[in-house]
Amino acid sequence: MPAEEKRLYPFKLCRQGTRLHGQVALADLPDMLSVLSSDQGAVTYDLACDVDDEGIARVRLHIAAELSLLCQRCLQPLVWSVDGVTLLSPVRTDVAQQQWSASYEPLQVSETGAVLLVDLLAEELWLAMPQLPRHTTACVVQTDDPAIAGTASEEPGPFAVLRQLRLQP
Ligand SMILES: [Zn+2]
Predict the structure, then answer these.
(1) What is the whole-number distance in angstroms between the Cα of residue 100 and the centre of ligand 1?
(2) Which of 35, 61, 105, 123 is found 20 to 30 A from 81 (Cα to Cα)?
């Protein structure tokens, strides 16, 4: 079954104590390519479903991905590493009042109790992404010099550093 059609039933998975893991291409996630500078890569997920001591369905979701974003300062690519765990509890959108625990983030499921795996992964990635991605180290100076172009990594190469020094008044 293609990843984008994979449907999960979290309440059922929790009752059964199911654990699921795998990988989905970033290109298969809805709306994701609009913010990525490359359609390469994948998100790795691990879903551990069970019921907590109070009888609440609980989903422990671990996601890991390397996202190619654009630095909003120098407009060069930057790699943003996502590696995090979220504790979720399924919530049916058609049920107004239900048992709720502040320990979990809501995991919206349909009237039939289903959620698309790609929707779940995309939402978690959106939450893990910075609103204004920027290089954490100094941005590489823009240049037309082919000897320097292409060093747009997070670590400026020695030539870029030299050029920065030369550009200073
Ligand atoms: Zn930058």
Answers:
(1) 42
(2) 105
